[in-house]
Specification:
Elements (H helix, E strand, L loop, with lengths): L11 H9 L28 E8 L4 E8 L5 H19 L8 E11 L3 E11 L4 E11 L4 E3 L8 H18 L9 H22 L24 H10 L8 E3 L5 E5 L13 E5 L1 H4 L5 H15 L25 E9 L4 H10 L5 E4 L8 H9 L3 E4 L12 H19 L15 H6 L4 E2 L3 E2 L2 H4 L2 H11 L5 E5 L3 H16 L3 E2 L2 H5 L9 E2 L6
Parallel strand pairs: 2-3, 10-11, 10-15, 10-16, 11-12, 13-17, 14-15
Antiparallel strand pairs: 1-2, 3-4, 4-5, 5-6, 7-8, 8-9
């Protein structure tokens, strides 16, 4: 069992030897059992499903792995969105030659009803070298907000002190001189030494009454409150590149900060190094969220197989990514399902792509397994009327009856009603919009696939006209349309686009009953 009271204190020297083992001798008998960094695999908690995907194209390979507790859990939404941003950055920067790879993965740092911490890693490989980046995210259940790594500290002065503690470990345990301390650690240590030199000089002149205990002042005039989400985010941006972006808690009750060997002069080996901040120091740094996170990490380490404690509903219920931050496009397919839809679903799965299918109610009973597969694989089903009649030629009561009949048919097979409606031919009027309870979705990219029946022309039109926020119109009842989809997927994927549902594209706040939407372009 872990001593959660933290009455046992660990010296900086002992903690450094336990976590880093650079060759300390003579401490074996005095030291407690080695402290370990607390990181928990995604499958450590019952109720957590693990989603993973690999997309291999001729130019690159990208893979990602993340928890799937609830599609719209704020932390899961942030993890997926952040991974998507990194994937776009990677794809937009592809070299002319080679087949580089991007692998992204997630692990838990702490899990409780009050707080959940996650670590997201990104590893890029070009065949010549590997680069690894990591960041930590913290979910505060009381506010239902996802906060940056800075939120576990009480204020900027505490953040400064934490950096100084890590810098001192490098100086004292690795003999790294001040001038060689990397990045922000060097800046903080230089500020501290400068402040100490100033105080000592003043003391020699008889102008100091401060004694030996000194405080490290924040670089800002006023230390900001890191319990405030906006201020925590501002400070995180200003401290970007800090090794504390990738911190966890240790089994000794302190913090463990990961650094790559290349960041530490004189360090050998290819494994990342874990620098400790002792428990006694940590207690002077942390915010209330930080204390809750540490308690959760220690409890998690001492227990096995506990139930993931957080359940919805959440503010973003129904969303899986935040397309306001991403290059998103919605591929939509009308008039099905049909005999080619299964093949289309296979092609979409190759790119981990989500699409929206506007189905005809009369075909639901003919292809129930296809609809069930659509739903199970994360695609969205939309209402395309019962048998493709022109809604604009109907009375309000006729519109309601047609839409309701189709809604009920889909719900009977999948368990939920379609989120949106697409009127056949794009034909509608005020009677239609006033009679329905779902948004009406049109399109801004019409591939004219029903007319050309030419897969090459269909793909070229989709690729040349799609932009961020586009809704692309296709028909899965036409073989040539389905044949065009692999080229569309590969081309847009290489440009860094993400294939999302209509709900993801517009967001929940962007769709009202009876509202007519064509695209979500920002400009």
């Amino acid at each position: 069992m872990i001593d959660t009271s933290l009455r046992r204190k660990l010296s900086v020297t002992a903690a450094a030897c336990l976590l880093l083992t650079p060759g300390c001798q003579g401490l074996e008998e005095e030291s407690p059992p080695p402290a370990e960094t607390i990181r928990l695999p995604l499958d450590s908690f019952s109720g957590v499903e693990v989603e993973s995907a690999t997309v291999g194209a001729g130019h690159s390979t990208v893979s990602y792995r993340y928890p799937s507790v609830s599609a719209s859990h704020p932390l899961m939404l942030e993890i997926r969105t952040g991974m998507a941003e990194r994937r776009t950055e990677f794809l937009e920067g592809l070299p002319d030659k080679g087949n580089p790879e991007l692998q992204q993965d997630t692990s838990f740092l702490a899990v409780s009803p009050q707080v959940v911490g996650a670590r997201v890693t990104s590893e890029t490989s070009s065949g010549v070298q590997n680069d690894v980046e990591s960041r930590t995210l913290w979910y505060d259940a009381s506010s239902q907000e996802v906060l940056p790594w800075t939120s576990v500290f009480s204020d900027e002065a505490a953040l400064e002190q934490a950096h100084l503690s890590v810098a001192r470990v490098l100086q004292e345990e690795y003999d790294v001189p001040l001038q060689q301390l990397p990045g922000l650690l060097g800046e903080v240590a230089s500020r501290a030494d400068g402040a100490q030199a100033t105080e000592e000089a003043a003391a020699e002149e008889g102008n100091s009454s401060s004694g030996g205990n000194r405080e490290i002042s924040s670089p800002e005039e006023e230390s900001r409150d890191l319990s405030d989400p906006e201020q925590a985010a501002e400070v995180a941006e200003e401290w970007a590149g800090s090794p504390l972006e990738d911190l966890a808690f240790s089994t000794a009750g302190g913090m463990a900060v990961d650094m790559a060997p290349g960041e530490i002069p004189g360090a050998s080996g290819g494994e990342e190094l874990v620098l400790p901040v002792e428990a006694e120091s940590v207690e002077g740094f942390m915010s209330e969220l930080g204390f809750a996170a540490r308690d959760a990490a220690l409890d998690n380490h001492s227990q096995d197989g506990t139930q993931f404690p957080l359940e919805g509903p959440y503010p973003g219920e129904g969303l899986s990514m935040d397309c306001a931050r991403l290059k998103c496009v919605a591929l939509t397919f009308d008039d099905g399902p049909g005999e080619h839809t299964g093949r289309l679903l296979d092609d979409l799965a190759e790119y981990d792509a989500r699409a929206t299918f506007y189905v005809l109610g009369r075909l639901v009973d003919e292809f129930p397994e296809v609809l069930q597969r659509m739903d199970a694989e994360g695609h969205e089903l939309g209402n395309h009327t019962w048998k493709h009649d022109d809604l604009a030629e109907m009375s309000a009561e006729q519109v309601r009856e047609d839409i309701t009949r189709t809604n009920e048919a889909v719900q009977e097979v999948t368990g939920s009603e379609p989120a949106t409606i697409r009127p056949p031919y794009g034909s509608l009027n005020e009677t239609v919009s006033g009679a329905v309870e779902q948004p009406l979705i049109l399109w801004d990219v019409d591939t004219h696939d029903w007319q050309s029946r030419d897969s090459g022309k269909i793909a070229e039109h989709a690729l040349s006209h799609s932009e961020t926020g586009s809704v692309v119109l296709l028909h899965d009842i036409h073989e040539q349309s389905v044949e065009a989809v692999p080229e569309v997927l590969e081309g847009l994927h290489e440009q860094g686009y993400h294939f999302v549902t209509v709900t993801d594209l517009f967001g929940l706040e962007g769709m009202d009953s009876g509202e007519v939407l064509t695209d979500a372009r920002m400009g």
